[in-house]
Amino acid sequence: MLVLLPPASSIRALAFHRRLRVPLLAPPRTLPRLGAAPARSIMAFSAEPASGEEKAEAEEESLHTTAAAGAGAGDGDGDGSEVSHEEWRRWGTSSPLPAAVAAVVRELLEMEAAAGEKMRFGGVGSKLKGDFKDMEDKKHRAVYETLGDSDQKLQYFSARQIGCRLLGSRGYLCHKCWLPTEDCMCANIVPCNLWRGMKFWLYMHPKDFLRQNNTGKLLWQVFGIQAAQLCLFGIQEHEDIMWDAFHRSGKGKISFLYPNKSIIPKSVKDLKFDGSSLTSDLHEMSSSDEPFNFVLLDGTWSNSAALYRRLKERWTAKWGDEDIPCISLSTLSASVMHKLRPQPAWDRTCTAAAAAGLLWELNLLPELSTYEFEKQAEAVECSLDILLDALTTRRVRLGRSITRKQRHNRNI
């Protein structure tokens, strides 16, 4: 039975969910092989709710039906123009605009001009609506059939998903918190410094990009886009940036926060922190010291299997190891987001809650006790409460239910 706990009265009280122990995360299902990808580095973690839950999440993600060219955003976008590098970076990334995404956006705008009809978006993930949708669907299927291998098809799929979401969210979603502008929660988020000796990578499925109830975005809202960096699945430029960072750090400084039961799971206590990295304080770090990379898989539980497989393929291609270095949390507990969006089971949690759990366990290591991980974990948990409150307030205003029908009760 899902028990809803009363809201915390302070940031420290928000740590209640780390005290509820649950079993280790379940391993992902095996999905069809995507095909070999170039070598890159990995660190993985948790995932958002399972794919079957996308339909259940539809009302949370419903975008108002909007014409892409007619929705003014107030920041220079939303005028029917192509996506600029500046607009792209405002959504939470420091990378240049990916070429494939720019090409998809350009094609959509050219189709719109040729059709003499405004693109309309709505529903989960800013999907195209109306006759334009049918026309675009035929064209993208034709393009898809011409692509030679599975990796090209994945890259096109990801770019198309992201391009549509960028155009459909213009003038509607806040660039930072990905909520409708009238529900923006940015003013309530309190930034916090992450220990400079570590870095989070959010390896995000494109279907979670700009998703309102996504929790991975909270990490860069709290810690900044350099300490918690977005890497979009299937976007070559993003994946290359991440793997280049892994190469600089070395395989010993990469961990995936993800349940891999094919091998004996490692815990946070098994991580080895060398002395050079530990000489840096919270804010300062030698240029010769590369951070420890912690990779979080950010997507639905079914999509996380594809994320994991792509990481594993590139890890094997780069370092020759069959298994990637995964760690599991021993004190993982239910996230506050269970109140609004239950996971398939108590042993599965949202991305931000898993990151907070990792920080709590790092705080227990004697050699890291001076790096304020408790404060950093509490900041993430506080941001989760703020997101929950913003989503709940929106539902109440729209006359929607603020509870979810429980699923998979046999696992709870």
UniProtKB/TrEMBL annotation:
Recorded superkingdom: Eukaryota
UniProt key word Membrane: no
Residue intervals of the DTW domain: 170-400
The keyword tRNA processing belongs to this UniProt entry's keyword annotation: yes
Coiled coil: none
A GO molecular-function annotation: tRNA-uridine aminocarboxypropyltransferase activity
EC number from the UniProt entry: 2.5.1.25
Protein name from the UniProt record: tRNA-uridine aminocarboxypropyltransferase
Swiss-Prot/TrEMBL GO biological process terms: tRNA processing
Region feature Disordered, mapped onto this chain: 47-92
InterPro entries noted in UniProt: DTW, DTWD2/TAPT
Principal EC category: transferase
Record keywords, A-Z: S-adenosyl-L-methionine, Transferase, tRNA processing
Catalytic activity entry: a uridine in tRNA + S-adenosyl-L-methionine = a 3-[(3S)-3-amino-3-carboxypropyl]uridine in tRNA + S-methyl-5'-thioadenosine + H(+)
